[in-house]
Specification:
This protein is an alpha/beta fold and about 350 residues long. The chain is built from eleven helices and twelve strands. A hairpin with a 2-residue loop joins strand 6 and strand 7. The chain binds nicotinamide-adenine-dinucleotide. Nicotinamide-adenine-dinucleotide (NAD) binds next to loops.
Length: about 350
C-alpha cells in the first residue's frame, strides 16, 4: 500500500530537481503518493501566505515531507520559511550524512554523519543592539541558549541513531573550555547520556576548532558527530566539502512526529529555469526518506543508479564538470536503475 508524503517543490531550481527526483522514484517503483503543497515565494506568487495553513496541515497529517529549497528574501520580506517549519514542528535534529560519491574524491569511502541540534544555541536568534551616546548600534549582543532538555534529547538522538545504523562511535563536539556555562552544560549532559550507552557505543569528546582541523587531516576517525546548532551548521558544510560539495549533500530535519527531507543547497536563483541544476542531493534526500519509511532496499537501488551514473562520467550536469541537462542526467540514472541490484 502506498504511503502518503507531503511534497513541497520549492523555489528557484526546486520544481525542476523535484520533478527529476519524482521520475526516478517512480521508475524505482517507490510506493509513495504525493500531497503537493506550496511554501515560500511559490506560495506568495499565488497570493497566499509564505507558509500556508494547508501546507502545515498536510505535513501534520502525513508526518513525512520531501522539500525543495525555499528562497528567503534578503534584507526585507518574509523570514526564512525553513526556520519557521523547523520551529513549527520542533524539528530538533538535523542529520547530515557525508558519504563519498565522486570516484576521484579526495577522501574515498568516507562515511560519517553529523547530528546538529536545530533549535537552540546562537541560532535561537535572541539578539539585540545596545545604544550608546548617539550610536544606536554601539553594541550588539546575542544569547547562546543551551538547555539541559535540548542537550539531552539531541545527544540521546545521536546515540540511538548510532545504534540503529550500526555505527561504533559518537563524538560530542563542544567549546566548553571557553564557554563554561553554555557549552559546559552541553558537555556535562552529553557525558551523562553517554554513560547509558557504555559498552554499546564508544563516546569521545572534542573541542570544535580541533575537530575542524582533524576533519581535514583524517576524517576517517569520525563516525557520528553530535554538536550544537552553529558548530553543526559549519562542520556539516565542511564535511559536505570533503565528499564533493553541496551537489551531493542531503539532509533531514527530525522531530518527535515529523521528518522533513531536503537537499542542503538552496534555490540557486542564478541558474533557476535553465534546466541545468544537479538533482542528486534531493535524490539522495529521497533515498534517506525511503530508508526512514522502511524501504531501504528501494533507496539503495536509487543510490546505486546515481553512483553508477556519476562514476561513468558521461552524462553529468555542469557543476559536476559535464554539460548534461537535469533531464539528461535523470534519464541516465533511470537507465542505470535497470541494472542496479
Ligand atoms: P545556493 O545553494 O542556492 O547556491 C550556491 C551556489 O551553488 C550557486 O552558484 C548555485 O548555482 C549553486 N548550486 C546550488 N545548488 C545547485 C544544484 N543543485 N545544481 C547546480 N548548482 C547548484 O545558495 P545561495 O545562493 O546562498 O541561496 C539562494 C537561496 O536559497 C537563498 O534565498 C537562500 O535563503 C535559500 N536557501 C534555502 C535553503 C533551503 O531551502 N534548505 C538552503 C540554503 C539556502
Amino acid at each position: 500500500m502506498a504511503t502518503t508524503a507531503t511534497l513541497i517543490p520549492g523555489d528557484g531550481i526546486g520544481p525542476g530537481i523535484t520533478a527529476a527526483t519524482l521520475r526516478v522514484l517512480e521508475a524505482a517503483g517507490a510506493p509513495i503518493e504525493w500531497d503537493e503543497r506550496v511554501a515560500g515565494v511559490a506560495a506568495t506568487e499565488l497570493g497566499q501566505d509564505p507558509l500556508p495553513q494547508e501546507t502545515l496541515d498536510s505535513i501534520e497529517g502525513t508526518r513525512l515531507a520531501l522539500k525543495g529549497p525555499l528562497t528567503t528574501p534578503i534584507g526585507s520580506g518574509f523570514r526564512s520559511i525553513n526556520v519557521a517549519l523547523r520551529k513549527h514542528f520542533d524539528l530538533y535534529a538535523n542529520v547530515r550524512p557525508a558519504k563519498t560519491i565522486l570516484p576521484e574524491a579526495r577522501y574515498p569511502d568516507l562515511d560519517l554523519v553529523i547530528v546538529r541540534e536545530n533549535t537552540e544555541g546562537l541560532y535561537a536568534g535572541i539578539e539585540h543592539f545596545i545604544g550608546m551616546d548617539k550610536d544606536p548600534k554601539a553594541v550588539a549582543e546575542s544569547v547562546m541558549l543551551i538547555t539541559r532538555f535540548g542537550s539531552d534529547r539531541i545527544v540521546r538522538f545521536a546515540f540511538e541513531y548510532a545504534l540503529q545504523h550500526d555505527r561504533e562511535r559518537v563524538t560530542l563536539v563542544h567549546k566548553a573550555n571557553i564557554l563554561k556555562c553554555t557549552q559546559g552544560l552541553f558537555l556535562e549532559v552529553g557525558r551523562h547520556v553517554a554513560e547509558e550507552y557504555e559498552g554499546r557505543i564508544r563516546f569521545e569528546e572534542k573541542i570544535v576548532d580541533n575537530t575542524a582541523m582533524q576533519l581535514v587531516l583524517d576524517p576517517y576517525q569520525f563516525d557520528v558527530i553530535v554538536t550544537e546548532n552553529m558548530f553543526g551548521d559549519i562542520l556539516s558544510d565542511l564535511a559536505a566539502g570533503l565528499v564533493g560539495g553541496l551537489g551531493f549533500a542531503p539532509g533531514v530535519n527530525i522531530g518527535k512526529t515529523v521528518s522533513m527531507f531536503e537537499a542542503v543547497h538552496g534555490s540557486a536563483p542564478d541558474i533557476a529555469g535553465r534546466g541545468v541544476a544537479n538533482p542528486a542531493a534531493l535524490m539522495l534526500a529521497a533515498c534517506l526518506m525511503l530508508e526512514h519509511m522502511g524501504l531501504g532496499e528501494t533507496g539503495r537501488r536509487v543510490r546505486e543508479a546515481l553512483l553508477s551514473t556519476v562514476a561513468e562520467g558521461k552524462t553529468l550536469t555542469r557543476d559536476l564538470g559535464g554539460s548534461a541537462s537535469t533531464t539528461e542526467f535523470t534519464d541516465a540514472i533511470i537507465a542505470n536503475l535497470a541494472s542496479a541490484r
